Design the sequence.
C-alpha cells in the first residue's frame, strides 16, 4: 500500500517488512522501526489530535517524548491506553489507535465551536464566571468536565502483569546518546557495575536522527561498536525502552521499562512493564536537550514542527514530513536541518534566520542547494487551518519587538520547521535537588551545584559540540566509577573525533515573535498562549508558580518540556525583568508519566497485603465456614449448616458452648515469648496490674495503656518459669504490642535483662469451651490432673493432648469452662480433627468469631478496639480492680489528669432495649430524650449489640457519660432518625458471679 | 474591586482583556499594622478577609514567605467534608462546609466547590462499626450522613470494585452528599482578592524571622523585609508552625510529616464522587480538568521537604488499582508532598497563647484545606475579640495538659 | 526512599525501618510527682526542628534493634548514626 511520504531510501526502518495498522479506523501500513507518528506521516496523515481547550486541529510537533499534540488512545478493550504519545509508540502489526478529545470525528469536531467564542475564554476565565445562578454550577461543571480531560479511560480491567525490580549499581547512566555511551564505556572499563538506561527503543540518542561522522565514519557505527562492547561486558546492564522517571533521596531512582509495549500483547510470562528501583552509587545524567518552539501567530497549525523533529523523521524514519518546507530559527540548528530535508527530497523554499546576519558558512552550503536564506526576518503567521499552506515572513525591527517594512511576504509551503534554541533536559537533575543556573548565551538553564552524587554531561550540560560531549561523557563516566571505588587499569578507550562543524554563531534569544493576529501558543498541550501569560501577569499573578497555576502552562502530560523556558521568557518580558529574576517552577516527578499498574507491580489481587491463614484453614473452608478478615488474618466468622442464615448459625454455636461443648480455632491470637531475669519487673511496668507475685504455672489477665492513659491492648499472660512468660495479645495488635515492648526494653530500660520474641506462628491453638470441656480433655490427656483443685482456673499445665506435646491454658473468653490447647503449629490440624472426632458424642460444635463475640459480651468481657477506641481508660471500663495503686506503670500518671479523672466521662454500661427483639446497630448513639432530631448532644454510643439465645432477647453494651452511676435509668438509642428506649444496666448479662468458667 | 461575571468577560473581550484590574496589589510593607497574619495560605488569607469584613479591622498585613497559596493550599487533594466523629470537630468542619457552599458568590471568585459527595469505605467489620458510629453521630449533629450498601456504592460510583472476594472487600460506606471538592488555588486567590479589596496588604516574599515580644505582649515581627509592628499577630503557617512557635518561645505537640499525593493524566469523566479508604490509605477524586487526584499516606519521619517519594505512593496505587481496576493503565503525571503539621489527637490548635496578642492556628494535619473558610472565620473572631469563638473553644493548646483531647484518630485502634 | 545505615546490618532501605520520633526523651522517674502540665509536656510536646533532628529508628524488618539517627529534615541527609544511650553527636 502506498506510503506517499516515505523517502526512497535511508532511515533505520526495515523496508523489507510491512506492518498494518489503523488510525481512527483508517487502514495504513508502515515498517518495523517506525513509530506510530512516523508511520502516520509516511501515510500523509498530519492531523493527529484536537487541542485541550479550543479543540484546534493539531499535528506532530516533535519526534520524541516531548510531543505535546500527538496523544492517542492505543489498543482496545482492557488493553486500551489513553494519552499515548504517538512519537514513542513503536509500530507493530495490527496496531489500532484512535484520536482523542474530539466528537464526532477528528476532522469534524463539534468542540471546535469553542474556538468561535475564544475571546470569552482567556486564562482563568472559569474563575470569573459560572457563579450565577449558584444552583446552576453543577450543570456548568458537567459541561466543563466533558469538554476537559484528554483520552477515555479503558472500561475493563487490565489483563496484563507488571513487575518490580530492585537493583544496585555503581554508576547509573541516564541517556544513551553519545555522551551517555561514552560515560558508560569509560565507567564499565573500570569494572564498576553500570546500568545504562534510555527512553528510546534504540541507543544512540541524537546520533540516530543526525548524520554526523566520527573519525570519518558514520557516528552510529561508533555507537554500535560501543554497544557491542557494553553488551559483552559482564558488568553492564543495558536497558532500552526505559525511562528514568524519578530521582529521589539518597540516589534512589525510579525507572519504567516498557518490556512489551512494542508488541501487540506481552508474551506468556512476560510483564507488560517493569518498574526498576535502583540505588545508584553515582549517577551520570546524559539526558540531552530539547529544541524549543518559536512563539509566533498560529504556530500550532498541523505542519509546524520542530526542526530537529523534521530531521529525525527524514534521517531516522525515512519519512518526508512535507513536500515543501520553510525553516525558521534563532540559532544554527535550522541550517543542517534544511540540508537534511533537501537531501531527502523535500523542496526547501526558504530558511528564515531571526538573527540580523545569516551564518555565512552554512549560508554557502545552503546556497549550493539553491535554498534561499532570509536573515533578520521572522515567520509572523501561518496560512491554513487544518494544515500549513503557507507562511508569512516579515522583517524584524532591530530590537526584535516589532515588524518593519510592512506585513512581509507570503511563501507557500506545507511544512514549517522551527528552532527556538535548546533547553537542556534537567528535570532529573532538579528532582535530585540540584540547583539550576540561567545561561544567557543558551537562553536556558544549565546545571549548577549538585546535591547528590550526580554529574551532568553532554547537551544536558549545555554542550552541543559532539567531540566535547564525548570527552565530557568519558570523563564523567570514569570519575563516577572512581568515586564508587573502581579504577581502570591501563589506558582508556580511544576518544573519537567528530568532523569539524562550522563555528557556532550566537543565537538571538527571542521568546515572542511580533506580528500576526493569530494565537501564539506557548504550551501546545494545555492550549496556553502568550496572551494568557501576559494577562496573568497583568492581573497580579506574578510569581512564576501563580502564572503556571492560573494559566496551567507546563501542567500537561508532557510536563511542559517544550513550554517552560518560553513561558518564563514571556513572563519576564511582561514583568520587564530578567528570566532568572522570574525564577522557575519546581520539577516534580515523574519526568514521564508512569503507569499505575507498574507502580502497583505484583502486589494486586491475592498478593495485595497477603492474608494469613491458620494450619486449620483448609478444614474451615471444607466445612463451609464464612470468613472475616481480622488484622492480617482470615478467621472463620461462623459455620452455617445447610439452610441456616448467619443468625441461626451463631445462635446454634452459642448454645453449644453454653450447654455442651464448642471449639474454636484461636491460633491467630498474638503470642509473645518473654524471657530474662527481669521479665516479671518488665511486665510490672507495662501492665496496669502487679506481676511480680504471679506463681509459676499461673496466668493473669493484663491491660496495657499508652502513656496517654488509654487502653491499648489486653490479654492473658502465663508464667512458664521464674524468668519466662507467655504473653497473648489481640489478633490485630500482635505486631504493634511486640514493637511497643521492644521500644521500652531497648530504649528506656536497657538495664532490664529481658528478651521478647514473637511466637504467634509457632503455636496452633484449639480452644474448647463448654460444660463438657473437662470430660473431653480427660479423654485426650492422661498426664495432667484435670481436677479443678489440681488444675484451677487461670493456671496452665504442660501435658500431652491427643499424643501431642501441649501447653494447656485454663483461661476463658466465653465465660464457660475452657481449655486453650497450644500445640506446635504443624500439629494444629491433627489436634483439631482429633478434638472434633472425640467431641462428637457431646455434639461438639465449631464456632467462629461472631459466636465468640456474643459469648464474651454475655459475660461482659470487652474487646479492645470495640469497647475501646483509643480514648477509653481502664476506669472508664469499670476495671478499677486491675489498676494498681501501689506501683507506677506506663500511662498511670495520665489517669489523674484533670479531665481524665472526671467522673462524668463515658463509661461502660449494659443496655437492654425496651423491645427485647430490637437489636440496635453498633455505633448507634445514646441520648437522654426520645427526640433524635438534630441537633442533639450525644452522651455516648453502643459498642456491641447482639441477639442472645441464652437470654432470649437482645442486649448491648455501650459507653455512656457518667454511666457507672446511671444503672436503672432509661436512655434512648438513636439511629437513622429513631430513638429506642433502653435501660442502663451493669455490663454483664449472664453468670454474674463467673462461676461457670471457674467450675 | 471590579466584579467578575460573564458580562465583565464579554466587555473585557472587546478590549482584548487589556483592562482587567489586579486581583491583588503587591504593596511594600508599612511600619505598623493593627494586626499581622503570618502565613499567606488559604487559612491566613481567609483570616484577613474575615477580620476586614466581619470585624472592621482592615489595617492588616498578611506576610507570606513565598507566594500566596504555595504551601498546603496548593498541594492538597482538595477534599471538603464535615462528617467528623466528635461534635467539636463536626462543629468546626460543618461551619466551614456551610461557608464553602456560598463561597464563590461571597468572594465573587469561582472556587468551584463541587458537592459531588464523599464516600468513606469500610473493608472489615471493625471499620463498618466505626463508620456507622460516625454516621449516627453525624445524624444527631445535623451533619448529613448515610450508610450505603456495596450495591448502592456501585450505583453511586460505577468504577468501584465491590467484588466480595477482594483482599479488602467493600462492606459498605458512609456517604456525605454535601461534601466534595474545590479548586484549591482559587481559594487562596479568591480570599486574597477579597481581602485586598477591603484594604488588607498582602506581602509576598516576606519571611518572618522573629517576634518582638516584650513584657509578655507581642509588639510586632521581624522579617526579611524589615521590622513590622502590630499589637496582634496571628500565626497560621502550616508546615512551619513549630518553627514559628520556637521563635516565639512556645512548644507545640506537633510533628511535621510529608503527605504524599499524585495526579494521573487527564481523562474524560470516570469518577463522579470522592472515595476514601482508610484501611488502604488512599483517596481519589477527579478534578474538573480530568486528572484523577489521589491522596496517599504520610512518610513516617519528620520532614520539611515537599518532595515526592516512592514507597508510600506504591502502596496507595496498589490499593487504587484494586478498588478501581480500570485505572491500571492510566498513568501518574505528577507527584509531590505537602508538609502536614500533625497533632497527637488529629485535631487542630486554634486560639490564644501565653503571649498576649499572639494567636496560633495550627496542627490541622491532613485536614486543613476543608476547614479553610471556617478556620479563617473563627480565627478572625479570636484575634478581633481576644477570645475564642465558641466553635474553636475546644481546640486549645492546654488540652494536652488536661487531657481534654478531641480524639479524631481514636477509632483507628484495630483489634479483636 | 531513604538509605539508613543500621549499625548492626549496614545500609538498608527506609521501608525496613520504623521511625520512633524524637530521641533523648527521658521518662520522668517519678511521674506521680509531676504536675499535669509537666506530664503533658513529656507525653505530647516534641522537638520538630527544621534542620538537624535527633530521632530514633528501629530496624524492625531486620535485626529489630533501636538506634539513634541525626538527620537533616530538609535535605534528608543522614548525618550520624549512634547507639541508644549515647549522647547526641555534634553535626
Sequence:
Amino acid at each position: 500500500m502506498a506510503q506517499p511520504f516515505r523517502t526512497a531510501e535511508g532511515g533505520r526502518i526495515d523496508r523489507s517488512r510491512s506492518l498494518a495498522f489503523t488510525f481512527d479506523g483508517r487502514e495504513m501500513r508502515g515498517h518495523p522501526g517506525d513509530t506510530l507518528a512516523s508511520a502516520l506521516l509516511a501515510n500523509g496523515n498530519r492531523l493527529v489530535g484536537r487541542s485541550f481547550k479550543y479543540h484546534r486541529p493539531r499535528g506532530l510537533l516533535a519526534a520524541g517524548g516531548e510531543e505535546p499534540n500527538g496523544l492517542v488512545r492505543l489498543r482496545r478493550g482492557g488493553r486500551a491506553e489513553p494519552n499515548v504519545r504517538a512519537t514513542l509508540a513503536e509500530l507493530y502489526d495490527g496496531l489500532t489507535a484512535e484520536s482523542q478529545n474530539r466528537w464526532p470525528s477528528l476532522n469534524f469536531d463539534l468542540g471546535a465551536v469553542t474556538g468561535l467564542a475564544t475571546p470569552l475564554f482567556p486564562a482563568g476565565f472559569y474563575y470569573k464566571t459560572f457563579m450565577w445562578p449558584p444552583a446552576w454550577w453543577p450543570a456548568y461543571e458537567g459541561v466543563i468536565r466533558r469538554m476537559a480531560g484528554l483520552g477515555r479511560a479503558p472500561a475493563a480491567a487490565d489483563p496484563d502483569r507488571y513487575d518490580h525490580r530492585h537493583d544496585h549499581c555503581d554508576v547509573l547512566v541516564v541517556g544513551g546518546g553519545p555522551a551517555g555511551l561514552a560515560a558508560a564505556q569509560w565507567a564499565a572499563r573500570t569494572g564498576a557495575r553500570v546500568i545504562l538506561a534510555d527512553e528510546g527503543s534504540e541507543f544512540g540518542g541524537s546520533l540516530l536522527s543526525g548524520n554526523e561522522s566520527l573519525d570519518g565514519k558514520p557516528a552510529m557505527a561508533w555507537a554500535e561498536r560501543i554497544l557491542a562492547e557494553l553488551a559483552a561486558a559482564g558488568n553492564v546492564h543495558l536497558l532500552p525502552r526505559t525511562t528514568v522517571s524519578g530521582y529521589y533521596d539518597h540516589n534512589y531512582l525510579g525507572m519504567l521499562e516498557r518490556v512489551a509495549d512494542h508488541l501487540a500483547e506481552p508474551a506468556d510470562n512476560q510483564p507488560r512493564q517493569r518498574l526498576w528501583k535502583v540505588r545508584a552509587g553515582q549517577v551520570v545524567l546524559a539526558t540531552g536537550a530539547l529544541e524549543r518552539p518559536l512563539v509566533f501567530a498560529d504556530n500550532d497549525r498541523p505542519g509546524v514542527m520542530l526542526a530537529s523533529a523534521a530531521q529525525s523523521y527524514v534521517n531516522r524514519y525515512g519519512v518526508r514530513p512535507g513536500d515543501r518546507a520553510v525553516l525558521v530559527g534563532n540559532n544554527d540548528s535550522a541550517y543542517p536541518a534544511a540540508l537534511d530535508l533537501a537531501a531527502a527530497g523535500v523542496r526547501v523554499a526558504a530558511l528564515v534566520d531571526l538573527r540580523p546576519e545569516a551564518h555565512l558558512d552554512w549560508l554557502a552550503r545552503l546556497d549550493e542547494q539553491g535554498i534561499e536564506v532570509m536573515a533578520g526576518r521572522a515567520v509572523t503567521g501561518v496560512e491554513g487551518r487544518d494544515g500549513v499552506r503557507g507562511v508569512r515572513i516579515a522583517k524584524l525591527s532591530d530590537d526584535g519587538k516589532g515588524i518593519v517594512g510592512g506585513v512581509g511576504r507570503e511563501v507557500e509551503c506545507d511544512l514549517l520547521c522551527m528552532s527556538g534554541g535548546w533547553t537542556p533536559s534537567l528535570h532529573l537533575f532538579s528532582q535530585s535537588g540540584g540547583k539550576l543556573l540561567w545561561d544567557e548565551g543558551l537562553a536556558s538553564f544549565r546545571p549548577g551545584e549538585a546535591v547528590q552524587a550526580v554529574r551532568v554531561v553532554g547537551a544536558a550540560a549545555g554542550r552541543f559540540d559532539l567531540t566535547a560531549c564525548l570527552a565530557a561523557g568519558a570523563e564523567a563516566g570514569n570519575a563516577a566509577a572512581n568515586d564508587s571505588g573502581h579504577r581502570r587499569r591501563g589506558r582508556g578507550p580511544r576518544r573519537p573525533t567528530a568532523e569539524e562543524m562550522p563555528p557556532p554563531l550566537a543565537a538571538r534569544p527571542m521568546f515572542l515573535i511580533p506580528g500576526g493576529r493569530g494565537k501564539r501558543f506557548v504550551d501546545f498541550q494545555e492550549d496556553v498562549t502568550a496572551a494568557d501569560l501576559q494577562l496573568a501577569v497583568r492581573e497580579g499573578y506574578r510569581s512564576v508558580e501563580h502564572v503556571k497555576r492560573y494559566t496551567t502552562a507546563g501542567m500537561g502530560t508532557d510536563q511542559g518540556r517544550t513550554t517552560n523556558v518560553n513561558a518564563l521568557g514571556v513572563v519576564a518580558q511582561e514583568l520587564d525583568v530578567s528570566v532568572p529574576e522570574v525564577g522557575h517552577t519546581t520539577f516534580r516527578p515523574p519526568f514521564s508519566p508512569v503507569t499505575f499498574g507498574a507502580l502497583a507491580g505484583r502486589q494486586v489481587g491475592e498478593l495485595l497485603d497477603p492474608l494469613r491463614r491458620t494450619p486449620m484453614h483448609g478444614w474451615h473452608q471444607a466445612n463451609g465456614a464464612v470468613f472475616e478478615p481480622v488484622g492480617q488474618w482470615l478467621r472463620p466468622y461462623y459455620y452455617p449448616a445447610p439452610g441456616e442464615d448467619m443468625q441461626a448459625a451463631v445462635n446454634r454455636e452459642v448454645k453449644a458452648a453454653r450447654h455442651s461443648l464448642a471449639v474454636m480455632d484461636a491460633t491467630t491470637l498474638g503470642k509473645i515469648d518473654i524471657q530474662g531475669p527481669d521479665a516479671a519487673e518488665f511486665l510490672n511496668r507495662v501492665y496496669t496490674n502487679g506481676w511480680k507475685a504471679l506463681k509459676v504455672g499461673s496466668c493473669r489477665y493484663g491491660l496495657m495503656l499508652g502513656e496517654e492513659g488509654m487502653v491499648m491492648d489486653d490479654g492473658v499472660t502465663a508464667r512458664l518459669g521464674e524468668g519466662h512468660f507467655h504473653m497473648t495479645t489481640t489478633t490485630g495488635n500482635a505486631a504493634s504490642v511486640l514493637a511497643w515492648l521492644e521500644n521500652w526494653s531497648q530504649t528506656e530500660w536497657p538495664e532490664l535483662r529481658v528478651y521478647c520474641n514473637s511466637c504467634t506462628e509457632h503455636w496452633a491453638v484449639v480452644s474448647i469451651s463448654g460444660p463438657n470441656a473437662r470430660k473431653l480433655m480427660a479423654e485426650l490427656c492422661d498426664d495432667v490432673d484435670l481436677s479443678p483443685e489440681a488444675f484451677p482456673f487461670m493456671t496452665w499445665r504442660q501435658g500431652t493432648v491427643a499424643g501431642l506435646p501441649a501447653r494447656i491454658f485454663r483461661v476463658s473468653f466465653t465465660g464457660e469452662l475452657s481449655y486453650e490447647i497450644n500445640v506446635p503449629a504443624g500439629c494444629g490440624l491433627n489436634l483439631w480433627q482429633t478434638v472434633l472426632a472425640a467431641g462428637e458424642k457431646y455434639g461438639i460444635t465449631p464456632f467462629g468469631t461472631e459466636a465468640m463475640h456474643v459469648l464474651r459480651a454475655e459475660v461482659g468481657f470487652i474487646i479492645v478496639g470495640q469497647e475501646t477506641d483509643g480514648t477509653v481508660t481502664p476506669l472508664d471500663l469499670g476495671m478499677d480492680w486491675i489498676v494498681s495503686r501501689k506501683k507506677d506503670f506506663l500511662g498511670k500518671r495520665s489517669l489523674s489528669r484533670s479531665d481524665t479523672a472526671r467522673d462524668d466521662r463515658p463509661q461502660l454500661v449494659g443496655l437492654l432495649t425496651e423491645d427485647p427483639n430490637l437489636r440496635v446497630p453498633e455505633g448507634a448513639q445514646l441520648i437522654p430524650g426520645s427526640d433524635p432530631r438534630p441537633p442533639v448532644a450525644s452522651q455516648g454510643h453502643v459498642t456491641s449489640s447482639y441477639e442472645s439465645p441464652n437470654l432470649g432477647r437482645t442486649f448491648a453494651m455501650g459507653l455512656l457519660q457518667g454511666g457507672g452511676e446511671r444503672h436503672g435509668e432509661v436512655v434512648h438509642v438513636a439511629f437513622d432518625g429513631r430513638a429506642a428506649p433502653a435501660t442502663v444496666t451493669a455490663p454483664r448479662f449472664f453468670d454474674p458471679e463467673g462461676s461457670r468458667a471457674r467450675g | 474591586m471590579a466584579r467578575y461575571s460573564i458580562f465583565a468577560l464579554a466587555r473585557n473581550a472587546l478590549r482584548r482583556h487589556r483592562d482587567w484590574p489586579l486581583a491583588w496589589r503587591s504593596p511594600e510593607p508599612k511600619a505598623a499594622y493593627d494586626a499581622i497574619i503570618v502565613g499567606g495560605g488559604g487559612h491566613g488569607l481567609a483570616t484577613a478577609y474575615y477580620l476586614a469584613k466581619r470585624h472592621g479591622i482592615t489595617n492588616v498585613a498578611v506576610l507570606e514567605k513565598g507566594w500566596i497559596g504555595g504551601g498546603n493550599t496548593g498541594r492538597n487533594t482538595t477534599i471538603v467534608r464535615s462528617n467528623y466523629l466528635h461534635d467539636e470537630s463536626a462543629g468546626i468542619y460543618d461551619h466551614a462546609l456551610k461557608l464553602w457552599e456560598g463561597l464563590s458568590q461571597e468572594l465573587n471568585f469561582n472556587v468551584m466547590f463541587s458537592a459531588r459527595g464523599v464516600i468513606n469505605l469500610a473493608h472489615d467489620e471493625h471499620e463498618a462499626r466505626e463508620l456507622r458510629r460516625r454516621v449516627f453521630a453525624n445524624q444527631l449533629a445535623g451533619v448529613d450522613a448515610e450508610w450505603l450498601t456495596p450495591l448502592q456504592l456501585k450505583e453511586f460510583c460505577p468504577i468501584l470494585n465491590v467484588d466480595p472476594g477482594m483482599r479488602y472487600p467493600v462492606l459498605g460506606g458512609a456517604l456525605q452528599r454535601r461534601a466534595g471538592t474545590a479548586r484549591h488555588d482559587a481559594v487562596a486567590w479568591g480570599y486574597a482578592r477579597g481581602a485586598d479589596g477591603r484594604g488588607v496588604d498582602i506581602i509576598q516574599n516576606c519571611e518572618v524571622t522573629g517576634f518582638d515580644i516584650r513584657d509578655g505582649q507581642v509588639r510586632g515581627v521581624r522579617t526579611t523585609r524589615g521590622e513590622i509592628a502590630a499589637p496582634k499577630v496571628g500565626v497560621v503557617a502550616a508546615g512551619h508552625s513549630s518553627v514559628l512557635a520556637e521563635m516565639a518561645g512556645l512548644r507545640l505537640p506537633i510533628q511535621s510529616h510529608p503527605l504524599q499525593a499524585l495526579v494521573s493524566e487527564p481523562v474524560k469523566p470516570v469518577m463522579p464522587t470522592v472515595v476514601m479508604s482508610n484501611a488502604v490509605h488512599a483517596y481519589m477524586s477527579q478534578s474538573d480538568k480530568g486528572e484523577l487526584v489521589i491522596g496517599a499516606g504520610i512518610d513516617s519521619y519528620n520532614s520539611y521537604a515537599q518532595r515526592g517519594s516512592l514507597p508510600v505512593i506504591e502502596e496507595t496505587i496498589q490499593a487504587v488499582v484494586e478498588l478501581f481496576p480500570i485505572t491500571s493503565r492510566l498513568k501518574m503525571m505528577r507527584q509531590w508532598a505537602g508538609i502536614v503539621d500533625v497533632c497527637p489527637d488529629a485535631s487542630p490548635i486554634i486560639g490564644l497563647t501565653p503571649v498576649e496578642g499572639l494567636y496560633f492556628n495550627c496542627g490541622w494535619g491532613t485536614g486543613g484545606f476543608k476547614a479553610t473558610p471556617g478556620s479563617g472565620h473563627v480565627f478572625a473572631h479570636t484575634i478581633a475579640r481576644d477570645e475564642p469563638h465558641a466553635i474553636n473553644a475546644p481546640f486549645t493548646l492546654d488540652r494536652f495538659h488536661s487531657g481534654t483531647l478531641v480524639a479524631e484518630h481514636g477509632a483507628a485502634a484495630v483489634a479483636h | 526512599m531513604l538509605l539508613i545505615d543500621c549499625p548492626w546490618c549496614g545500609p538498608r532501605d527506609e521501608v525496613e525501618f520504623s521511625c520512633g520520633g524524637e530521641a533523648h526523651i527521658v521518662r520522668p522517674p517519678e511521674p506521680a510527682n509531676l504536675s499535669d502540665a509537666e506530664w503533658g509536656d513529656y507525653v505530647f510536646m516534641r522537638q520538630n526542628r527544621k534542620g538537624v533532628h535527633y530521632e530514633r529508628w528501629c530496624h524492625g524488618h531486620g535485626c529489630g534493634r533501636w538506634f539513634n539517627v541525626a538527620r537533616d529534615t530538609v535535605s534528608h541527609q543522614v548525618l550520624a548514626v549512634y547507639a541508644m544511650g549515647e549522647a547526641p553527636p555534634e553535626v
Observations:
- The mean pLDDT of chain C is 96.
- Chain C touches chain B through 26 residues (CB under 8 Å).
